[in-house]
Automatic annotation (TrEMBL):
It comes from Desulfotomaculum nigrificans (strain DSM 14880 / VKM B-2319 / CO-1-SRB) (Desulfotomaculum carboxydivorans). Belongs to the CRISPR-associated Csm3 family. InterPro entries: CRISPR-assoc_RAMP_Csm3, CRISPR_Csm3_endoribonuclease, RAMP_III_fam. This is CRISPR system Cms endoribonuclease Csm3. One of its GO terms (biological process) is defense response to virus. It comes from the Bacteria.
Length: 217
């Protein structure tokens, strides 16, 4: 297979509601939140793992085109469809599709959001996140109980994302680019991260470029 070009999509993930992507509980201190978000270990800043965005795009495209293995819930393993071609064959017994076409980088805070978080940390002691308390409602009494805290990135936070699409000689460039666009559009309509049915994870992709030229979804 001959690699002919790379197409680079860049932009901003704008959180329109709080975003929760869970992190490790290994370093929780006594009295700390036992539902932390993922953070970059050297700085403590939140980020969006490339695997989270890539996995959500793939899952939604599989659902739309009825490709996901229904019984197991695993990703498509056919090794022949466009999902497998773009996102990887995932344990396919046999495939001639070649390498995964899409590379999704980890998305780190934009400079604007870093400055906003630093100011909030200095003024209010907020450590680059918010804590949202949720309750279970007793169906008989209507009373809320068992409050549980969830850490999340607040609405308005921006993450800079980058997606690289590898094009090989036999690939249909337009079809693959349109497929990636469709995956991003589906994420906007659905949600990113956890607790989407409870209002978390509504995002919008803004300031998008393709090979440094303006690009619309």
């Amino acid at each position: 297979m001959e690699l002919t070009k790379y197409m680079v999509i860049k932009g901003i993930i704008l959180c329109e509601t709080g975003l929760r992507i869970g992190g490790s509980k290994d370093d929780i201190e006594i009295g700390g939140n036992d539902n932390p978000i993922i953070r970059y270990p050297l700085t403590g800043l939140p980020y969006v793992p490339g695997s989270s965005l890539k996995g959500k795009m793939r899952a939604l495209l599989e659902l739309k085109y009825s490709l996901k293995t229904q019984r197991s819930g695993d990703p498509c393993t056919c090794g022949n469809c466009l999902v497998c071609k773009v996102f990887g064959t995932h344990k396919a017994a046999e495939s001639r599709l070649g390498p995964t076409r899409i590379i999704v980088r980890d998305a780190f805070l934009s400079p604007k959001s870093v400055n906003e978080f630093k100011a909030a940390n200095q003024d209010k002691g907020i450590f680059y996140s918010e804590v949202k308390y949720e309750n279970m409602v007793d169906r008989n009494t209507g009373k809320a109980g068992h409050p549980r805290p969830n850490e999340r990135v607040p609405a308005g936070t921006e993450f800079a994302f980058e997606i690289v699409l590898r094009i090989f000689k036999e690939d249909n460039e337009k079809d693959m680019l349109d497929f990636v666009k469709e995956g991003l559009q589906l994420v906007e309509k659905d949600y990113l991260g956890a607790c989407g049915s409870r209002g978390y994870g509504k995002v919008r992709f803004i300031n998008i470029t393709l090979d440094n030229e303006p690009f619309d979804l």
